[in-house]
Amino acid sequence: MITFEDVVKVYPGGSTAVDHLSLELPTGKITTLVGPSGCGKTTSLRMINRMVTPTSGRILIDGEDVAGKDEALLRRGIGYVIQHAGLFPHRTVLDNVATVPVLLGETRRTARTKALVLLERVGLSAEFAKRYPAQLSGGQQQRVGVARALAADPPIMLMDEPFSAVDPVVRAQLHQEFLRLQQDLGKTIAMVTHDIDEAIKLGDHVAVLRAGGHLAQFGTPRELLAEPADDFVASFVGRDRGLRSLSFDTASELPVKPVDGLSLDDAGRPLGWPGPSGLQPTGGAFTKEDSLRTVTDLVISSPVGIAVRVGPDGAADGLVSHHDLADYLASRRS
Amino acid sequence: MNLSYLTDPAHWDLSAPGGIPQLILSHLGYTALALLLGVIIALPVGLYIGHTGKGSFIAINAGNAGRSLPTLGLLMLMVTLLGLGLLPVLIALTVLVIPPILTSAYAGMRTLDHRVVDAARGMGMRSWQVLTRVELPMALPVLMSGFRNAALQVVATATVAAAVGLGGLGRLLIDGLAVNDYSRVLAGAVVVAGLAVLVDLFLALIQRWIVSPGLKGS
């Protein structure tokens, strides 16, 4: 657990970057720090590994004040990923990844062997090992950056806008892989982003900061969308938050009507809706595990305004019309 | 154009005291000593200024001031103060090589990608590790170009040693002029120019060998 105790950071010019921040980042979870530029999110992150020294207040890792530890040793125990990856251009990918283990006293040989395994873990084949950072795409560099931060298996990872320098398609892919990786590793992660969608998608908890370094709200993504603390958070979370909050609930309790009027194949799988000019595609189907947002989207995009639910075998087992969906959403609210 | 002095095999006798090979050797000796002293003095200062950003006016002005000092004039001044010998020559030549080494060390450090340095610190490198494992290797292409620049200048200018009675390829120029032997003067000029090219080629090879392939083309 990372604890901020009444932390203040005032820069020499007199500008306050962080204003009496108290916060707890739970162990094994991803906490995203999000806010507009100048809200002190990066400063807060960098105070955890002492790249920035607080003006007052304390930061504790598992109850121990970071100020009492040797700077370099503290940092070697904390993974650090920055925007544009910040890879060493003069070292090969493999040696970049091996950096911290070598600092910790491992031989170059063992560090490299481990680094190779890590590269595969972040989705890079062994052929990348001997390349130099300049020979990689932005997305590949970012993967190496993550592998490098993971190399010494630190319990804590600090990530400063790790995915902001890559295009949206690659970013979505990196998000998926990052979440999958985190599921295996269970690191305590603090991640800074200016993108609220990213914060909500990746964070188990989200800390929304506002200009001047005030904490506006700390909560789960669902809490943030359902009950924004004030107008600032509501406007920062943005439009569509009602729709987006549907992503956090599955369709497991959504009542369905019996399958009727839908063309099926021999195994009961949906083929399409009969129309005047032949079968119209259903546009997809949902399962009980899918989110209500997916169901809503299917209802809206369906040619007949009805979404099809399928079982694990792919056979259609129920229908939801927009009336059914609206009734269910209304009943949830009361 | 009379190349007879240059092409006369007798002047290329390896053991002859005034022969071209011996002169080349002493010439290279002055060059190497001046470069060594220059590196010892200017490299740490330039790296420090570049690393901390403190006193950058020194780096910039040293470059300009140093370039405008006439080496021959400085040499004569040193001889007046210190008498004849190797020391005044070394001082004059070292003053010549300090500016390019100092400014390139400064520039090499200033132009480093600060995000990479930040990452290095954030991963737990201590200051000297950041310097030796990240900053220096990354600044090496710029450092080397400054060093090559210095080497070229000092190879060309080390001829002044002969003006105060020492050896080096300047002997061919001074002695040739003294006895109106223009073939000898020409030989001196050609060998100095050739030596400068060879030294630069040699340093280019070293640069290729010590600069990481990851930094090429960037």
From TrEMBL, chain B:
One CC-aspect GO term: plasma membrane
Record's keyword annotation contains Transmembrane helix: yes
Pfam families for the chain: BPD_transp_1
Gene3D superfamilies, per database record: MetI-like
Domain ABC transmembrane type-1: 24-203
Membrane topology field: Multi-pass membrane protein
InterPro entries, per the entry: ABC_transp_perm/SBD, MetI-like, MetI-like_sf
Keywords: Membrane, Transmembrane, Transmembrane helix, Transport
PANTHER family from the UniProt entry: GLYCINE BETAINE/L-PROLINE TRANSPORT SYSTEM PERMEASE PROTEIN PROW, POSSIBLE OSMOPROTECTANT (GLYCINE BETAINE_CARNITINE_CHOLINE_L-PROLINE) TRANSPORT INTEGRAL MEMBRANE PROTEIN ABC TRANSPORTER PROZ
Name of this protein: Glycine/betaine ABC transporter permease
